[in-house]
Amino acid sequence: MLKRILISFCLMLLVFNIQIAFAIVSDKNIDFNERIALARVYCKANKMNVSYCIFVDMNVHSGKNRMYVYDFKNDKIIISGLCAHGNGGGSSPHKAVYSNRIGSNCTSLGKYKIGKRAYSNWGINVHYKMHGLEKSNDNAYKRIIVLHSYTPVPSFETAPIPLFNVSEGCPVVANKTMRQIDQLIQTGQKNMLLWIYE
Which pTM was predicted? Predict the structure, then answer.
């Protein structure tokens, strides 16, 4: 009897994981609320920070706020700002080209674990190492992809003027945005998820 219950439970878990995996593969069909739910499940399952998560929506014009820090506990966006995409691979101010290749200077889509805090030559002189968690971004650490700010990036929306040529593949934000994110990351005891998607 116990064996049957265990088998049934394992089958249920398998079906659940397949459903989650399918949803993640069908990335373009996910609305923001579904993405929040998936991120919450992912963070719990992978023992990551379950208080906050960072989303970068590459569908949004580069001159508009497209980085969002989401508060899971209060179910709301608490920080938003501009985020530059990489300038490599034929990327243009209005369209990013994605690549995981070392030396491509491109943005890579996918989930990242935000790692150690370190000194940066740019912006507020702070950056965070990024560890790619998917096939589409697993070279991030080798590519020295980090979350950092850059002083020329404004803390206000510039659309229809795009934000371009300030990133070689890193998610680059305004100094004001970085200060807010830095403060938040330092309060957490577990690594935060950053999810770049289109």
Answer: 0.85
